[in-house]
Amino acid sequence: MRLENRVAIITGAGSGFGRATAYLFAKEGAKVVVADISDTGGEETVATIRSSGGEAFFIHTDVTVASEVEHLIRVTVDRLGRIDILFNNAGIVQKFSAVEDVAPSVWDDIYAVNVKGVFLGAKYVVPEMKKAGGGVIINTGSIVGLRPPQNLCAYASSKGAVITLTKALALELAPANIRVNCINPTVADTPFLRHTFSKKGLKAAVKFIPIGRLAKPEDVAYAALYLASDESSMLTGTCINLDGGQGI
């Protein structure tokens, strides 16, 4: 197993990318800490992992609140002794709208989850990873952080910030043997996006993806597995464009 006995925290693991990654990491031998703002979703993920013989537990976490992220890290270390992998996956999206129609509160919410959440995760996990002699941080970006569409300024720019933050942290933390990479998915078939966008909107998005389909949560999970494993031991500061050719 590629992650045997490693301790992995996954934020936003109550559904979508995070849930699929939690399942795969557990299957590959990791002890998974499921973090999410949804208690129901988080506990469902844990129950499924345990029913398959994996090891997991849930910690309610709002990634925008420093004290809650600090609590997540502290409880994980207290219970499992260390943290090998942090997947900063929690995120929210923006409905397509012109810049003049974006409410300041919407802008603030998107940056709080998508950018501040990544910063807080790194802030509190890095000291523990340094004590352990290294670790892996994975961030969820987006292809729109590199190729922004029209009318998505808040979300696209927040993911651009995640990409730059990934590179900055990779340079800073390389001497401590902490690798930092990110995954840039295209539009994905997740419960959250199905709730946010219409079926017509999701169908239209496929036209911009050369490979001809939306991303699946499992696509992200397998990319995260590679980045978390020793197979990518020379990879840091890199973003995997999991976009079906959209970014070309």
Report what the structure shows.
The chain is built from eight helices and seven strands, in the order E-H-E-H-E-H-E-H-E-H-E-H-H-H-E. By secondary structure, the protein is α/β, with parallel strands linked by helices. The chain has a single domain (7-233), classed as NAD(P)-binding Rossmann-like Domain (Rossmann fold). It has a seven-stranded parallel beta sheet, sandwiched between helices. Strand 1, helix 1 and strand 2 (31-36) form a beta-alpha-beta unit. Helix 3 packs parallel to helix 4 and helix 4 (104-132) packs parallel to helix 5 (153-173). 46% of the residues are buried.
Quick overview:
The chain is of the alpha/beta class and 248 residues long. 47% of the residues lie in helices and 16% in strands. Strands 3-2-1-4-5-6-7 form a seven-stranded parallel sheet, with helices on both faces.
Query: What's the rounded overall pLDDT mean?
Result: 95
C-alpha-based Rg, rounded? 17 Å
Instruction: Tell me which CATH architecture applies here.
Output: 3-Layer(aba) Sandwich
Order of helices and strands: EHEHEHEHEHEHHHE
Tally of DSSP β-strands: 7
What is the number of domains? 1
Sheet-strand content, in percent, reads 15-25%
Low-confidence stretches: none
Assign a percent range to the helix content. 40-55%
- Shape by Cα distribution: globular
Q: Span from first to last CA?
A: 34 Å
Reported for the largest beta sheet, the result is: 7 strands, parallel
Structural class: alpha/beta
- Count, helices: 8
CATH H-level superfamily: NAD(P)-binding Rossmann-like Domain
Query: Which fold name is given in CATH as the topology?
Result: Rossmann fold
- Taking strands numbered 1, 2, ... along the chain, how are they ordered across the largest sheet? 3-2-1-4-5-6-7
In the CATH scheme, the class would be Alpha Beta
